[in-house]
């Protein structure tokens, strides 16, 4: 009699699911680290790390944004479907999915910069670059960036590929 369902034991499926979720969470965190470095380069007049450290509220906002980012990428990685019976390497590490994450990273940077500059141009009386004067404002600014980036990576993780 032929097997209709998965041929791997349940614990193997769970271990592969855990490994894949952890791999994509750490890959996303690495992209976030690069994204924060890019944010530092693109906004040289806003000293994010220095200003965030000046206030416990801004530090809390940064940590809250990081937790939301982490929740989004773990949710995206955990709900990403995979084919049972496929190679464990393909299940845990999909070059196509990783490429989509990197593409999502670059898209978020380019579109985010473009839209920010358009918004800045359309609202000349709002001094966006003045956010650097208050640590809480910088904390909110980075909090928003973390959530924005988490949503982009979540979409890249959960997009059906075929």
Describe the structure.
By secondary structure, the protein is mostly helical. The chain has one domain (about 10-160). Helices cover about 75% and strands about 0% of the residues. Helix 3 packs parallel to helix 6. The longest helix is centred in the first third of the chain and has 33 residues, at about 10-40.
Provide a short characterization of the protein structure.
73% of the residues lie in helices and 0% in strands. With 162 residues, the protein is mainly α.
Output the keywords.
162 residues, mainly alpha
SSE topology sketch:
Layout (H helix, E strand, L loop, with lengths): L9 H33 L5 H5 L3 H24 L8 H5 L2 H28 L12 H24 L4
Helix pairs in contact: 1-3, 1-5, 1-6, 3-6, 5-6
The count of helical stretches stands at 6
What quaternary form is this? single chain
Overall body shape: elongated
SSE sequence, one letter per element: HHHHHH
Beta-strand content bin: under 5%
**Structural domain tally:** 1
Ends distance: 30 Å
Report the helical percentage: over 70%
Residue ranges: pLDDT <50 for 5 or more in a row?
none
What do the pLDDT scores average to? Answer: 85
Number of strands: 0
Structural class per helix/strand content? mainly alpha
The main pleated sheet reads as: none
| C-alpha Rg (nearest Å) | 19 Å
């Amino acid at each position: 009699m032929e097997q209709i369902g998965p041929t791997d034991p349940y614990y193997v499926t769970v271990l592969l699911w855990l490994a894949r979720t952890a791999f994509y969470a750490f890959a996303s965190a690495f992209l976030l680290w690069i994204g924060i470095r890019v944010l530092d380069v693109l906004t040289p007049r806003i000293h994010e790390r220095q200003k965030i450290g000046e206030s416990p509220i801004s530090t809390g906002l940064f940590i809250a944004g990081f937790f939301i980012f982490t929740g989004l990428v773990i949710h995206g990685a955990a709900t990403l479907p995979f084919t049972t019976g496929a190679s464990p390497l393909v299940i845990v590490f999909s070059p196509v999915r990783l490429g989509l994450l990197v593409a999502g990273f670059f898209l978020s940077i380019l579109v985010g910069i473009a839209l920010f500059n358009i918004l800045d141009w359309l609202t000349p009386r709002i001094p966006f670059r003045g956010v650097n004067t208050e640590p809480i404002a910088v904390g909110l600014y980075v909090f928003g960036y973390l959530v924005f980036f988490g949503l982009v990576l979540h979409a890249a993780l959960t997009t059906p590929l075929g």
